[in-house]
Write a structure and sequence with these properties.
By secondary structure, the chain is mainly alpha-helical. The chain has 14 helices and 2 strands; from the N terminus they run βααααααβαααααααα. About 4% of the residues have low confidence.
């Protein structure tokens, strides 16, 4: 197999379960992956490149350690993408402090911070940004990873949907995933209004159960 920085952590651990021990031995920050829910959520989005950042490990070291573990325990031939393992090219004008601040601003917006306050913070952040830094940002997509509180809220919803019927669970998750009503009503074999009413009824059942606690 070929190992590179873009492989998803969750997919790799699913294929080679013994790598869970390898990762947790590298950094205690990877112990969260022992939680099956974390592997199914964060693990399905986090790449090895991101894992190296989280674990504060050089990407080349992480790839080499995982490759050795696969060779030893699975007996497979593993090739490491040298380009992926190479250090990031020099000359980038991207300011890591500015990127970190921008992530905080985005998180604040998601957490309900006032729009005007966010606008002011953003204006202050970008007022001295030069064209070179903007060019350096373009090939680097920014991902804001969920907080522990957000993951806890997600775990709670898994319990909530067990209170409704299987068909209702599918309907609720479909709408949470922004599946169009036209597609949903087609799958249910009913018109859009009826599908919407069923969705509302499912949410009402969950709300009633929560209010009764």
């Amino acid at each position: 197999m070929k190992l590179d920085a873009n492989i998803r952590v969750g997919k790799l651990v699913d294929q080679y379960p013994f790598l869970l021990d390898t990762l947790t031995a590298l950094s205690e920050k990877f112990t969260m992956l022992r939680n099956p829910l974390m592997r199914k959520t964060v693990g399905q989005f986090a790449t090895l490149a991101k894992a190296a950042q989280i674990g504060e490990i050089a990407l080349a070291d992480l790839l080499e350690t995982l490759a050795n573990a696969i060779r030893e325990q699975a007996g497979e031939t593993v090739e490491i993408d040298a380009a992926e393992a190479a250090p990031q090219r020099a000359g980038s004008e991207l300011d890591p402090d500015r990127v970190a601040k921008l992530k905080e601003i985005i998180k604040g917006l998601h957490e309900g911070k006032g729009v005007e306050a966010v606008k002011r913070e953003f204006a202050e952040l970008v007022q001295n940004v030069g064209p070179g830094e903007i060019a350096a940002m373009e090939p680097q997509p920014m991902r804001v990873w969920p907080s522990a509180a957000a993951i806890t809220r997600l775990e709670q919803t898994f319990d909530w949907v067990l209170w409704i019927e299987e068909a209702e669970r599918k309907l609720v998750w479909s709408r949470a995933a922004r599946v169009p009503w036209k597609q949903i009503s087609g799958e249910l074999g009913c018109d859009r209004t009826t599908a919407w009413r069923r969705w509302q009824l499912a949410l009402t059942k969950i709300a009633a159960r929560l209010n009764a606690q």
